[in-house]
Amino acid sequence: MKRIIIGNWKMNLDNRLAEVLVDRLRIHTTEPTAKIVLCPNFVALSLINLKVKKLDPKIWAVGAQNINENDEGAYTGEVSGPMLKPFVKYCIVGHSERRIHFGETDEVIAKKVASCMRAKIIPVLCVGENLRQRNEGLAKRTVMDQFEENLSELTMKEASKVVIAYEPVWAIGTGQNALPSDVEEMLSAIYQYLITKYSAETAAKIPLLYGGSVNGDNAKTYLDTQPCSGLLVGGASLNYKEFSKICQLP
Ligand code: PGA
To answer: Residue 46 CB: number of other CB atoms within 10 A?
Structure first.
């Protein structure tokens, strides 16, 4: 499976700075070893899509950071799948910042995953436990419960098109790194869950990513865990040197 590295720029970089970052990444990433997905804010999507379109589509792609669960209607301030489709191939869904700050429930996230499917956008479904849940020994249970709901609207065929990112909430933006052994344990549990829920064939098609305080120095240790096939990078994706390095790791 081809490695995937996703840069989640969050609510950073206006159009000018976003363009500069893409230019720098293009120049510095001469030997990419992964598919690279850039996720700017909504306003920058059109512009970044125009720039990325000029690059090798086997390597570069654009993703959104959020999607509304409805296709159209009176939902002030929201953006739907059909609106995003011309600009993106991927969309992050269920990021912990959306769960925490915007009250997204597992039920809403399931609908967002389904709305990605309707629009033929690949959902990058984020799951992960918080510190309390980890300390109480509930990490796996929390993540599996999230899947039970978040994937509930998909057929097996649709599920095989999802990308999954395991992001322990306590490791996001904190500089507090998860141990590679913990990542390996969780990704293996997710893989087993997918085999049981769907089939070995389906599970083998679903990329399993890790995210949480990944940088140029620790990325390789996560990529070396099994069955990790990529990374979701926040803070370090804003720094072209760090992100280029991650995208070119052997
Ligand atoms: P971080 O963010 O790399 O800054 O921890 C990861 C994410 O939010 O996806």
So the answer is: 13
